[in-house]
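Example S7 (structure tokens).
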């Protein structure tokens, strides 16, 4: 994991994934070293990054010169060049980077990166595809699934659960879901309590078993 107090991340590969990630880290106040072999891309993003460099990170010497070994966190945002992604990940491991995130473009690619020792592997296309499947088929506004079949869902409050305090409507025992947040039209989200009364048109955030939160979001 990221080291408390160390607010630096090296992002290797400034394609669509890497550049979006680097931009968000910058907006969140982190220091970002962005590296790409493509000078045009580095030029394009350099103004928005703390540091940037044109370098081939399959070369351990290039990483050493840039001081990447001093970083605790690095992201390998190289998808389409699988060989480069593997070499760069192994170089970062050799350099002692302790929080390596790597993007994979296929499950096989992801397996290799995990086997190699990458600490976190993400499959953006696969994960997003699965997530959108849940949204397309139902009425959920947003959906995140965690391990063990557990999900967090943003949805519209079903009529069956409106008009009385959550404590009385027994949403948890009846439907197996917990309402954690509620948003009235035109207002922000606030946390839900046993006294919260949901009204028609409220947007809510609920947690529970994937099957249960999906069934709950289908109620009207
Ligand atoms: P995306 O799908 O997010 O656009 P790509 O896999 O197409 O991602 O982009 C990966 C980026 O990584 C490209 O900009 C490419 O130039 C860069 N890249 C590829 N190999 C290396 C390397 N050895 N060192 C640094 N950057 C690299």
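Recovered sequence:
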């Amino acid at each position: 994991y990221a080291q408390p107090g160390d607010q630096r991340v090296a992002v290797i590969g400034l394609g669509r994934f890497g550049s979006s990630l680097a931009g968000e880290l910058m907006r969140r106040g982190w220091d970002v070293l962005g590296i790409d072999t493509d000078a045009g891309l580095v030029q394009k993003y350099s103004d928005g990054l703390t540091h940037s460099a044109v370098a081939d990170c399959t070369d351990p010497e290039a990483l050493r010169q840039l001081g990447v070994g001093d970083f605790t966190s690095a992201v390998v945002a190289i998808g389409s060049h699988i060989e480069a992604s593997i070499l760069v990940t192994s170089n970062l491991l050799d350099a002692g980077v302790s929080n390596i995130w790597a993007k994979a473009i296929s499950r096989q690619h992801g397996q290799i990166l995990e086997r190699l020792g990458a600490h976190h592997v993400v499959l953006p296309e696969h994960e997003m595809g699965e997530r959108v499947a849940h949204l397309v088929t139902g009425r959920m506004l947003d959906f995140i699934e965690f391990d063990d079949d557990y999900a967090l869902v943003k949805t519209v409050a079903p009529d069956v659960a409106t008009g009385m305090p959550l404590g009385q409507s027994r949403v948890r025992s009846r439907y197996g879901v917990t309402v954690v947040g509620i948003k009235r039209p035109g207002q922000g989200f606030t946390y839900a309590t046993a006294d919260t009364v949901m009204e028609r048109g409220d947007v809510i955030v609920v947690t529970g078993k994937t099957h249960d939160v999906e069934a709950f979001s289908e109620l009207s």
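Notes on this example. The chain is about 35% helix and 25% strand.
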